[in-house]
Structure formats: C-alpha cells, structure tokens
Specification:
The chain is α+β, with helices and mostly antiparallel strands and 221 residues long. The chain contains five helices and seven strands. The chain has a domain of 148 residues: Roll (SH3 type barrels). Helix 1 packs across helix 4.
C-alpha cells in the first residue's frame, strides 16, 4: 500500500515530481535561513568580543536547566545594576526571579531551534550575548504587544498594550532580555518575558516564543 501526502493549504502534492521538487526547495531555503541566522548571531558575538563587551557574567548558569531553580537573593546585583543605569532615564534594571509564566510542556522542535539558532556555540558566560543578537536579528521591530503579567520592575499592568520599538541597550541585558517600549509618552525598557506580541509576523512570533519558553523552563542568564 502506497501513502502520499497532499497539503491543501500550501497546494503541495508530494505524490508528483513537481511537488517533491518544491518540498526539497523549501527545505533548502529553510536550512539557508537557519544558517544565515546562526552567522548573524556569531557575527554579533564576535563584534562584541572585539569591542571588549562581556554580555553575561562569569559563572553563568544558562547552559544547565534548573528544573527547580533555587530562590537566591540578588539584591546586591540589583543595586549595582541600578547604579549602572542611573544615567539612563529610559532604562529600568532587569527583573530577577520573576515568574511570568508557568513551565510549558517540553517542545523538542523549539529546543532544537534554541540550541542551534539562539545559543549556537556560546559558552555558559556568553549566552546572554547570544540570546541578545538572536532576538535582535529575528524580531521585526516595531510591533504591538500586550502585557500578560505584572512585574516588580515594570510599570505595566496586565492587559496594557504598548509599542515595542527595539531591544534595550546591551549593558542592561546581562541577566534578562529587555526591550524598549513607548508608554504614556515616554520610552523605557521592560522584560520581554512580560509581553506577548499582537498579530506578529512568523519570525517575531518564533523568537519571542523561544525566549518565553526558555525562561519558563527554568533557565537563567
């Protein structure tokens, strides 16, 4: 018994030579897009290293998944971050230990994309850097977003809608991925994990979803 595949939504019929050729072409372009994104992430990391930037502290725990991450005080680090960002009126320090979403079920496809496109070959102390350049390269700014949960370091309330205009400056993304938003006539940075995109394109939806998934699984920068 022979089994064929026909996609009604993409008008793709794998029972014909033309359909199989088209499927092969789509696979080639998908692989090409992934490799281009990997190169962009690596190029961003290489540029940061050349300029002496170390986006991510030593002793980073991002590579190991903490299924039940310990609750530890980072008050001293928060104080240092506040001092470093004191001259940035539009940037708020990152949120540590915030629990914005429940841990989702394991998604092998998403985990493969994160490992090969977001983290790439970054060491444990460079994963904040690799995530930063992955999001910067894949998210299409600006986009509309809705706050899905309150956060101690953000003025947004659940349900508020904002315009996300860009990634926040690198030096405030050592422990969390922050994005700049327009809110009540001002610009400020808030955690990306706090926001859900409204009608995003596929690339933005994937990238934001990857960050939500990674943090919800218990990984830390």
């Amino acid at each position: 018994m022979c089994v064929g595949f026909v996609s009604l939504t993409e008008a793709l019929d794998l029972t014909t030579p033309a359909g199989r050729a088209m499927a092969a072409m789509l696979a080639v372009f998908a692989a090409f897009e992934r490799e281009v994104l990997q190169e962009r992430t690596r190029a961003g990391m290489a540029h940061a290293r050349q300029n002496g930037k170390r986006l991510g502290p030593a002793g980073n725990r991002g590579r190991a998944c903490c299924r039940n991450p310990p609750v530890t005080s980072r008050r001293d680090q928060q104080v240092r971050d506040c001092a470093a960002a004191a001259d940035r009126a539009n940037v708020r320090p990152p949120s540590f230990g915030s629990k914005v979403m429940k841990r989702p079920r394991r998604d092998p496809v998403r985990e493969d994309r994160i490992e090969n496109e977001a983290i790439v070959d970054a060491g444990p102390d460079e994963q904040a850097m690799s995530w930063y350049y992955y999001l910067e390269g894949k998210v299409r700014f600006p986009f509309q977003a809705k706050c899905r949960a309150a956060n101690a370091v953000s003025p947004l309330r659940k349900g508020e809608c904002v315009e996300v205009i860009r990634m926040a400056p690198e030096d405030v993304c050592e422990h969390d991925m922050l994005v700049q938003i327009k809110w009540q006539g001002r610009k400020m940075a808030v955690p990306l994990a706090q926001l859900v995109a409204i009608d995003p394109d596929e690339s933005t939806e994937e990238a934001v979803g990857d960050w939500h998934y990674w943090t919800a699984q218990g990984y830390l920068l």
